[in-house]
Amino acid sequence: MKRLLAILLPLLILSGCSESTAPAESSTAPAEPSAEPEKPEQTDDIYIFYTSDVHCGIDENLSLPALKALVEDTRKEHEYTALVDLGDFVSGGTLGSLSSGEIIVNLMNKMGYDMATVGNHEFDYGMPQLKRLIDMAEFPFVAANVRYTGTEGNAFTEIPEYIIKDYGSVRVGFIGILTPYSITTSIPANFMENGEFVYNFYDGGEGKELAEKIQNSVDEMRGNGADYVIALAHLGSIEAIAPYDSISLIHNTTGIDAVLDGHSHSVIVGDMYPNKEGEDVLLSSVGTKMENAGELIIGKDGTLTSMLISEYDREDETVRKAVDDAQEELNGILSEKVGEVPFTLSIKDENGLRLVRNREAPLGNLSADAVREYMGTDACVINGGEVRANIEAGDVTMEDLLNVMPFQSLLSSCYATGQQIIDVLEYSSKETQGLANFDGNPVGEFGGFLQVSGLKYTIDTSIDSPVLQDENKMFAGFEGERRVSDVQILKDGEYVPIDPEAVYTLASIDYVMFQGGDGNSVLAECEPIVEAGPADLVALIEYFKTHDTIPETYKQTEGRITVK
């Protein structure tokens, strides 16, 4: 077993009382934090294992069977052991996409999860399916910052804000925190009724509303006897998502002892950040696709220790059989050959760093070309967050294509003016920076960065983005100098300057074109040609089936997007 070990965080333990949960929206005033009484006796260390952003990677890296064995082996030696998840489990891979998350929830049940919170991609299959997945789960979810103003039924009605569990005489409270960016990083239409947003995740006041909501819940937890408060967060810890990131939340709250975080796929063993009163709070994040699981130990001596575990030398037989059975169910479909390619089609640069969310990428080009060709349009734009994996050299199977486009978004097309196309590219470039990477990490990544077909353009990063957004982080206009220039469109095999007044046909997916995905609602009012066609995967399959050979132009980028 490989373990990365964080530093220790000493904490004073408060006294406990009976186990409790909180409703999704508390109708009573929050309880006052209890005064610090005598420290309860803790008879054994408490082990809390955590996963995040698994994205259907159930048999990758550490793997679920190995994690289950680790948890069970720990449980044999330590009575107080738990397993929790921080969101984005059911979407992002083949098993999830083809079963709308149900195969994945069944596997989570086999794992014996104690609780989970909801990531933005749990919303991908729509609110009715999310409710079905919640009902299928043999473990509770926690979600503190959900506000519902609709009339058709709140999917979170039965989900508590937090749960307090007894471990002997010590009480540990777990609070779920969803990213306020859920609306723009899933499908915005899923949060609407009759064209109006009815779900909100406390995103007002530049992070203040979220902090206040969580503070009230934490105070209530302390008042209800929680000796420790552990945040199960799906916020992320990178600067691009501030002030709704986990670090900002720590800085603006008190009473949280540790934040176990997801969403940004960061790998953090256990960093310390000061809370509002200057007290250290532990922050940990495990990455994605089971590259690590986390282990938080609440010691008998009042310290918190966090570790990341990347491998284990034993697998649980029951979970291994469940994983194998689930995979066998799909093998007939997944193994079907749809084509072949003599070289790797990549979304990464030569150093293995992801390009598709901040630069032109070879597989981004092919994916956009496939959609444009299938839809028969002048041009195409595809968000980089839709193109998820390389296609390696050799035979190309259905599984390869599903891994590239796992979400099965619906193909769409519309009539758009040249100016609307310029505007959608401008929004796309709002996070782009002059460097594509720094110190071994991508820079300026944005899931809404557009890969293009039939288009060329330039982004000048010396100009601040003119994009304006509303309180829901949706597009609200432009103000100031534009970053995007020299936009050209393909006509009769040649690139020519786009005419802002002319009307063109444009293809994309419904997420980008009509649902305001990533907050980009520039095209929402365009006249539809195809509003909701077949899944995007169909275009990719058709491309491989109708092209005997893949042009070598896709070995590298072609200069469709110039960044300066």
Summed up, what is this model?
This protein has 564 residues and is of the alpha+beta class. The chain contains 13 helices and 33 strands.
* Biggest pleated sheet: 7 strands, mixed
**Count of runs of 4 or more consecutive helical residues:** 13
Full CATH superfamily name of the largest domain: Metallo-dependent phosphatases
**What is the typical, i.e. mean, pLDDT?**
90
| CATH architecture descriptor of the largest domain | 4-Layer Sandwich
Uncertain segments are 7-19, 25-37
Can you walk through the features of this model?
The structure is a single chain. The chain has 13 helices and 33 strands. The longest helix has 18 residues, at 317-334. The protein is an alpha+beta fold and 564 residues long. The protein is globular. The strands form 9 sheets. Strands 1, 2, 4, 5, 6, 17 and 18 form a 7-stranded mixed beta sheet that branches. Strands 3-8-9-13-14-16-15 form a 7-stranded mixed beta sheet. Strand 23 and strand 24 form a beta hairpin. The protein folds into 2 domains: 2-328, 4-Layer Sandwich (Purple Acid Phosphatase, chain A, domain 2); 336-563, Alpha-Beta Complex (5'-nucleotidase,  domain 2). The model is unreliable at 7-19 and 25-37 (pLDDT under 50). Helix 1 (64-77) packs antiparallel against helix 8 and helix 9 (362-375) crosses helix 13 (536-546).
